[in-house]
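User: what does the whole thing look like in 3D?
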Amino acid sequence: MAVKIKKQGNSKIAIDMTPMIDIVFQLLTFFVMTLKIATAEGDFNIRMPLAAPRAGPPDPNQLPPMKLFLKADSAGKCARVVMNDSEFSGGDRWTRLHNHVAGIVGDGSLASSAEVELVCDYNLHYEHVIEAITAVSGEMRDGQIVKLVEKIKFSPPVAQ
Amino acid sequence: MGFKLKRKEVEQYEIDMTPMIDMTFQLIAFFMILINFEAAEQDSRVVLPSSQLAKPPEAPFETPITIQMTKDGNPLLAAEVYADRKALIPKLKNEVYVLQTQNSSAANATIIIRAHKDCKTGDVQDLIKVCQEVGFEKFTLRANEEIGY
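Assistant: Here's the predicted 3D structure for the full assembly of 309 residues, as structure tokens:
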């Protein structure tokens, strides 16, 4: 017996897209509202090895550490910036400090051996320490960081 | 006389939703990628100082331990505030123990300090001293990238 196959018409199945679009927009809203645009962060390495007695005489090839004194006023703002015997004041003090360090270190070839020791007042606001580290550690040239001093360490804080 | 109303055929316009759905999914993918998964490390109480030399590190630290410091000088470790810096010592010793179980040591770990811009430098130095007592040697001070516009 022959089986008859009925020809089915090309009927379209309409899918209701509304719930999917609803969910997608809810997801989108969620991501937009939870998005927190964070600024990029960077690091400054500091050398703080455990206190150990220095063995033997100092290395003659090593530059002596440059002592940078940061003095604070009563409000914790940076009042005085002194490196060795040079004092830097005014609005461009960090630029002049940078130029001073660049004059000592040179073209950056001594960056790995040069060392800066920060001697800060206890109450000094931390942002001034970062300003000082920025001034002594290097500069931006054509979008690239050129290092001046890689070794930075702290002396014990000075009580006011 | 009766009026005869002609039935008008209602034309159905089908809107092609595909480009809209494509675009929406692309937006979702964009936001998912952009979302900062390291936000847990940040705390609204800590406003970092900014520096033009602060650039994101080229490679992540091998074993970083992030300690934050609020404006009042209170340290924050794993979202827990410590009123006393000495109270951090047991927690840090735990970290050292975990490092030792991984055949590492405190000397190999890096302490990332995220301190508020107006906190006292002495407090940050005291924090470093506490970490040194436990055996940590490598420290980095974190700052926001200063954008020149």
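In plain terms: The longest helix of chain B spans residues 18-34. Residues 64-143 of chain B form a domain with the Nucleotidyltransferase; domain 5 fold (CATH 3.30.420).
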